[in-house]
């Protein structure tokens, strides 16, 4: 009956439900913009909790077909509405788990939207990959369900496979071959995040009580296809493999990027330095000579590693911009203490114009777009990866958790645009390793090679999102195809 209503129904309604975390919200917002500009006949409704909506709405005032609706905030240990407000990765993980309690209110909300849409349910619910429960809600209304993966298929194939085939009884020294992947893709024990190791080692692990991540993989298997914030040229094989193993269409529509740091400012992230001041500092440095250091919006490194990183950057004698977050074990809200860095470090770096230390948040897109930036030392979060490659900046990898290990692997082994310097929060890097890697990437012949490759990918990524003389780039084609599928379903 719902299906009939949908078919006879009024508006072409699409619902977008992003996860409430910085790195997940932005790709959704960019997708909403693309869909709204490309297909004005779609009504796009973005669902989130009230405080998120408050910051999101002002960004879309010029898009009349994009609406926002509130879900009631949900019970979680810190009663937060966004991971930004949370003090530690532990709290973030608890927030993810408890987000599943949103299911009944999401169901009610779709029912209300359907009523106010003349009885026609949404054509499609596009949810975050971590809001897998939405698949059952979508199907109960006769709507399509398509997750938008805010990570790439190479990493997600490995990540999902590890979670799905638990327990592995791995120790850090073991090498793992996964049943769903070719034998050449092996995973080392050091490429498992802490919670994976715990789950893998746990003797009472049971298939009947799957972990949050395994549950999401299971849910998304029931979806009607998948959207990916990636570009075909980066992961062609993995996309094809995902399509083959899922038996459903895949659409690689990336890179979905923030337009500028203003995007984050509106979302409440005030940079520790303005883009203009940052550019003034970068202007003092030769082209491609500065390394940008940032571990994303959630991660940080232990205190002893912070010390070694500082000493190593100084030893490299290269210019750097470093986004300082409190070391692991300290609340993100605590004030940064000068004793966390070598004595006199900040003053020395300032006087020599060698290092710019930025507290908490930097205008990343602007830094990566500046001609003086020569490398990005990163935790390899997927947004950071796409932002760096879209600006032709090679990477120095220090993956810290979840699928970041496989992003780093992809970048180094498959794409040749990265040197992995360290792995995991338990890495024991020494200052000398840091200095050596930074010089390798900024100065050596190998560094030249990976830069060339990064610049080639930048060009290819630009081509993916444009249409020239009737020739559509791969991401334009994919988005067209996706919209066509929606329209056919909505008829
Ligand atoms: N970001 C930023 N300034 C910072 C730190 C992060 O603008 O100082 C942005 C970055 O540009 C990216 C996002 O925050 O868009 C981080 O996403 P990513 O997937 O790289 O990592 P996550 O934070 O999800 O681990």
Compact description:
44% of the residues lie in helices and 15% in strands.
Features:
coiled coil; Glyco_transf_N; Rossmann fold; single chain; binds uridine-5'-diphosphate; 20 helices; globular; 491 residues; UDP_glycos_trans_CS; EC 2.4.1.-; transferase
Task: Provide a descriptive summary of the structure in words.
With 491 residues, the protein is of the alpha/beta class. It has two domains: 2-150 and 223-254 and 466-490, Rossmann fold, CATH 3.40.50.2000; 271-463, Glycogen Phosphorylase B (Rossmann fold, 3-Layer(aba) Sandwich), CATH 3.40.50.2000. The protein has helices spanning 2-8, 22-38, 50-56, 89-98, 103-116, 134-140, 153-164, 194-201, 212-220, 232-246, 262-266, 275-283, 303-316, 345-351, 364-369, 382-390, 404-414, 431-443, 445-464, 474-490; strands spanning 12-17, 42-48, 66-70, 124-128, 144-149, 175-177, 186-188, 226-228, 250-252, 290-294, 319-324, 355-359, 373-378, 395-397, 418-420, 467-468, 471-472. The strands form four sheets. The chain has a seven-stranded parallel beta sheet with strand order 3-2-1-4-5-8-9, with helices on both faces. Helix 7 (153-164) packs across helix 17 (404-414), helix 13 crosses helix 18 (431-443) and helix 18 (431-443) crosses helix 19. The longest helix has 20 residues, at 445-464. Mean pLDDT is 89; it is low at 1-9. Bound molecules: uridine-5'-diphosphate. Residues 22-23, 26, 258, 261, 264, 294, 296-299, 323, 361-362, 364-365, 381-384, 387 line the site of uridine-5'-diphosphate. Uridine-5'-diphosphate binds next to helix 2, helix 15 and helix 16.
